[in-house]
Amino acid sequence: MASVADLGKKQPPLIAHVIFQFSVGGLENGLVNLINHMPAERYRHAIVCLTDYSHFRNRIQRADVAVIALHKREGWDFGVHARLWQALRKLRPAIVHTRNLPCLECQVSAAMARVPGRVHGEHGRDVYDLDGSNLKYNLLRRVVRPVVDHYIAVSSDLADWLVRIVGARADRLTQIYNGVDSRRFHPRAAPRNSFGHGFCSERKFVIGSVGRMQAVKDQLTLVRAFLGLLETVRDARKRLRLVVVGDGPLREESQKLLSAAGAEHLAWLPGERQDIPEMMRALDLFVLPSLAEGISNTILEAMASGLPVVATRVGGNPELVEEGLTGMLVPPADPVALAGAVRTYLVDQGKLARHGQAGRKRAETRFSIDAMVNGYMTVYDAVLTSKRH
Question: d(Cα 24, Cα 247) in Å, to the nearest integer?
């Protein structure tokens, strides 16, 4: 990684991306894709983490990207804003781009550090504010709104909410879908080999999910749906398998549910993995049981991998999954409905193949990396141009 001093010698404008933590996650994955695919001659980048970063930073392919950790303490930590101000004064970015509610206050720090351009992105909500109606948080959003030059929303659902509830001006708001690398994520070209230390063979039907195992992702509903299928579908214990990739507090809870039902040998919860494209190609059906979503990178990756998608009807999921064409949508926190949708594909291999092929085509034509990158550069260009007048 380049030092802050090295960054200052470069000519293209610098974007300082402020995020809460730089580790495995959809928001972070989207940031990595943006940096890796944006032409180096157009913009430079630095990542400022309010807390810390993990080995995930090694996914960045450019050598000139500084990653800075401010080590924010839990709860209120006024000192983190002082440290952010100091970092921004050293970096001297042309634009600060904050993301989601935990970083929104940093717009004020950026204004105080005299950063010319200020962009804020909304990528989704957490369990503490699933529908964006929390009065306290919305008051904060409105108070900070005057210092934000431009908003970016990853879904039409979030864009509409920013205008209606937060009061963002439509002419200072751009909706940009996440993009997926359809070369890295592609359909399985050969029979599936046994994976997970012999856990699964080609003859099994593997349903799977990828994501942080936290309350908002609600993998417990997926586990309960899986256990319901084992009880209601003939020969399911011989044929059906579950893979849940990711780490977090729900991992242990999921394992307990599986063990209590005597089904721990029918599921594989490997924790965090670095080989997500290969894991996707090992699945037959992708399931996302979230309680809230912005635009899910994992849905896009599953579609690009040629998988049908069963997802909850929340947030931006209906903007990705064409119901009856590329997958199915079900109510959140409803294991019976989720099991029913999975069963549809379990018994209809023709639909499984058709929806998977249609999902791949949709990912290639509607959600390309190039379209995402061009969208962000257009916003950055417009913000800088407005500051010159």
Answer: 9
Shortest CA distance to 212 belongs to which of 338, 19, 28, 17? 28
Domain residues of the chain, as ranges?
A: 4-179+369-387, 205-366
> Exposure pattern of 158-180 as b/e (b: 16+ CB <10 Å)?
bbebbeeebebeeebbbbbbbbb
pLDDT (0 to 100) of residue 106: 97
Q: Which two tokens stand for residue 197?
A: 């230390």
Query: How confident is the model at residue 35, as a pLDDT?
Result: 97
| Nearest Cα residue to 356 out of 174, 242, 188 | 188
Q: Give the pLDDT confidence score for residue 196 in this predicted structure.
A: 67
Q: Residue 132: which of 98, 87, 163, 95 has the closest Cα?
A: 163
pTM value surpassing 0.85: yes
Those residues whose C-beta lies under 8 Å from the C-beta of residue 231, and which sit 6 or more positions away, are none
| CATH number for domain 205-366, candidates 3.40.50.2000, 3.90.550.10, 3.10.20.540, 1.10.4100.10 | 3.40.50.2000
- The answer to whether the beta carbons of residues 148 and 120 sit under 8 Å apart is yes
DSSP codes joined into one string, 79-96: HHHHHHHHHHHHH--SEE
Q: State the burial class of residue 301 (Cβ atoms within 10 Å of its Cβ: 0-12, 13-18, 19+).
A: buried
Give me the pLDDT at residue 197, please. 66
Confidence at residue 76, expressed as pLDDT on a 0 to 100 scale: 83
The pLDDT of residue 10? 59
| CA separation for the pair 245, 219 (Å, rounded) | 10
Parallel, antiparallel, or unpaired for β 309-312 and 327-330?
parallel
Amino acid of residue 353 = A
Q: Is 162 in contact with 168 (CB distance < 8 Å)?
A: yes
Segments of the chain with pLDDT less than 50: 1, 5, 7-8
As its CATH architecture, domain 4-179+369-387 has 3-Layer(aba) Sandwich (3.40)
Tell me if 284 sits within 8 A of 163, measured CB to CB: no
Burial group, residue 139, by CB count within 10 angstroms (0-12, 13-18, 19+): exposed
Torsion over CA: 100, 184, 370, 8 (sign)? positive
